[in-house]
Structures are given as C-alpha cells and as structure tokens.
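pinning this so it doesn't scroll away 📌
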Amino acid sequence: MKIYTSPVSPFGERVRIAALAKGIEIERAPLPAEGIKKGEYLEMNPIAKIPLLVTESGTVIPESEAILNYLEDRFPSPSLRPPDPEQRARINIAIRITDTYVMAPVIRTFPHLDPATRDGRVVDREIGYWKDGLSALAHFMRLPMPVAEAGVSMADCVLPVSLHLSERISRILGIGDLLAPHAILVDYYSAMQDHPIVGKVLEELTTVQDAYDAAKSR
C-alpha cells in the first residue's frame, strides 16, 4: 500500500496514527511535482485532495475517514473500535461532529488567513459556526471517550489532529484559544498529547507546520 499525503496534513496524520497503532506499514508516495489538481493525480482522484490510499491491487481510496474504515476492515486486530455498539456510536458521533461542524468552518477560513486579503465578515461567520461545533463536540464528550483494543480508537485518530489544527488556525487568526471554554476538550487534548503514539504525531505535526508557516512568512 502507498499513501499520497503531506506531513503538514492533519487528515493524512489521522491515517498515520491508525497505521502506527495497528503496526501497518504504508509507503508514503511523493506528491507529484505538478501538484494534485492536474495530471495523473487528478485522474486517480478527481476530488483533488489528500490523503489518498492506493492498495496493492490498485484500488484508490480517497478521504481519511474512508481510509480509516478500510484499514479497520482489512486489519481488524488490534481494533480501533470498541466492541459495544453504543460505544461505537459515540465514537462515530464525535468524528462526524468534528468533521462537519468544527473542521469545515476552520477550513473555510483558509482563504482569509492573510490579514491583507481577509474578509472579516466571512471569518466572523465561520468562527461562530466553529464555536458552535466545539460546543456540540464537548456536549457529546461529557462521558470519557470509549477505549479500543489498539490503545487508540477511531476517534483518537481524528480528534487530536483536528483540535491541533483548530488551535493553529485560531492562533494565526488571533482569536484566542477556542478550546479554553470547554474543559472536557482541553482535558482530552492534553491526555492525547501524552499518549505515546498520538503525542509523537502531534509533536512532529507541530514541528513541520511551524516550519511551513515560517517559510510562507518570508
């Protein structure tokens, strides 16, 4: 198997956490020099996004959630899912809320990160959605998140790197720490930073993203 991704992509790092927890080797394929919006890559993935997993048989799997589900189905042990259906539902809820109501507005601020070209009205609107998403996520995480055989759950592959991006973008926008009002999210994120697998990925993600941001500002 090989994966097309970038070391600064939190979506690609979701897959990396899962692979590390399961002990799976996935080759990291270099992104094409021409970019992902043209040529051979676009033919493989007309969505023109990363990550993209290509299996040994040539099956192409886009979208991090679809890739995580594939890896779980193909390599069921150790599992990223708890055995109880209700606990699995809680994990699925946390992932869906994170992607739909937190990550989506965060990503929609990307065209406005540069103060010189920022539309304040758009940013303010998205920050409102973003805050609502974090509040909803905290609501459904009032109980401790379920654990899984792999030592991390599917939610632990998704949420920490997403909260990491939330912190990074809020810092760039100068809007303060949006996690701070939600002790549940703060405590969860702090615990994940101390996890031997997730913490390592978060630390390396911080390093490469800081270097990326510094290079862009030159």
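📌 and the second one:
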Amino acid sequence: MRFDQLPRSDNVEDRRGDRSGFPMGRTGGIGLGTIILLGLVGWALGINPLYLIGGAEILSGLGGSQQQSQPSPTNTRAGQPSDQMKEFVSAVAGSAEVQWKEIFAAAGKSYRSPTVIMFSGVTSSGCGVAQSAMGPFYCPNDQKIYLDTSFFQDLERRFQGCEVGSRSCQFSQAYVIAHEIGHHVQNLLGILPEVQQTQQLMDKTEANQLQVRVELQADCLAGVWAHHADEKWRLIEPGDVEAAMQTASAIGDDRLQRRTQGYVVPDAFTHGSSEQRVRWFMTGLKSGEVSSCNTFQAR
C-alpha cells in the first residue's frame, strides 16, 4: 500500500502511555476483572461490547460516574503524528476525510470527521471503558474511533489476517480503520440510532441478524473509501486487496467461532460470515457507490 501521498488528518489524538481519565478500581459493584472478561469474550466472538449489540448498556450500566467520565485533556496530543504508526493512521484517516466530504457534498450533505483515539491498554470513552481486548470500535456517543494498534499485531500473528511484516498488511490495517469510519458514516446518516432503537424491540437472534447487516454495510463503505482513494492517489499495490480479503475472512464470525469454540452458531453472528465480509467489501470496492451498500435490503 502506498500511503506517502495521502493527506494527513488533524483529528488523531494520541493517548498511548497516558491513562489519565481511566476509572481505576471497582465501579458499580463490579470489579475491573469482570470488565476485562467481558471485553475478552466480545473480542473473541467479533462482538463490539460497547455499543453495536447493546454492550453499551452493559458497560455504561456499571456505574453512572463511569459512563460520564471523560479522558483528561492533559498529556494527550492531537494533530500531526510523529512516529510511523501514527503517521499511517493519520494518512488513512486523512484520505477518508477527503473522500467522505466529497461523497457527502455530492449528495448535498455535510460530513463531520470523527476523531481517532490511539491508546495502549485501556482508556475511557463516551461509551465507557475502552481496552485493547475489545479491538477497534466506534463510539457514536462522542463520535470517536478507539484504536489500540496492538490489535494489528494480533491480527497478523493470532488471526493470520495477512502475512506478518508484509506491505500488504498495511492495506489490511487500513481496511480495519475504514470499517470503523464506515460506522461513523452510518451514524451521520442516522442508520445507527435507528438500528439501536429497532433492536430494543427484538429478541437476541433478530437483533444479531440486524447487527450483521450493520457490520456488513460498514465493510462495504470501507470498500467505497478504497475505491475512491485508489482513483485519487493510486494507493493499492498488487497483493493489497487479497491481504485485506484474507483479513476480512479471518475475522468472520464463522471462523472466529470455529477457532474459539470448535463449532459455528449462525444465530450468534454479529459481524457476518467470512464469505459475507469479503463479498460486501468487494461490492463497495468495485462500485464506489454508497447506494450499492444497502445490506438491509439484500437477501
């Protein structure tokens, strides 16, 4: 992946090594170990415990003060990053800002960029406690993306999402970031609030099925970003798409379930199967059209 020519985002905040604003100890009668366990279970099954399947109610319900706690502005750094990983994250976020502003403007809409929070281990968010075990996630409450970049190492080594150390792994990482930005796009379009309201009226199986459509649409929107970014900056190199599809396949619900529990339970899917994730990313990549990402109408 070529990212040297991509514009950089000013909406990247670095909290790595800074744990200010994290509520230590016990909260609402539930210990930190329980919170970490919930995060581990959610990550292993490909679930976002903070929001997208109702996890926000679980975590933010642990105590009123936790839900309201916000990171201290001290010791946080925003703007143009200095090290290589931050440079990469800033480049992906910057290119997405350019593309989504153009796409929204063409539809007569205004696009507001999300802030990407880089952290290590644990931090606080508008959706409660954020920790690396949960994987990257988007919090609609504060319109920020939370990213512990150690997830990328796990993606390469543990889930074999791409060949360790290869340049193509960068495009896989960009796909993960673009997927979370896709959730921000859904939020701006009013899709996420509508889905959450609808899920409250459903049983768990129905809510999961609706959640799969949310996640697959975010995959498709990531493909839309890649389509336009490649047209503008020629960032995709040979092997990049294959590596991204290997990643999408590696984090499909069926593969994650088979890996963690030895069998597959489709009713428990929340992100979609490996085949679905690959197919919808490729749909967005080939078409470059948001209209092609209507997973809610698809069979």
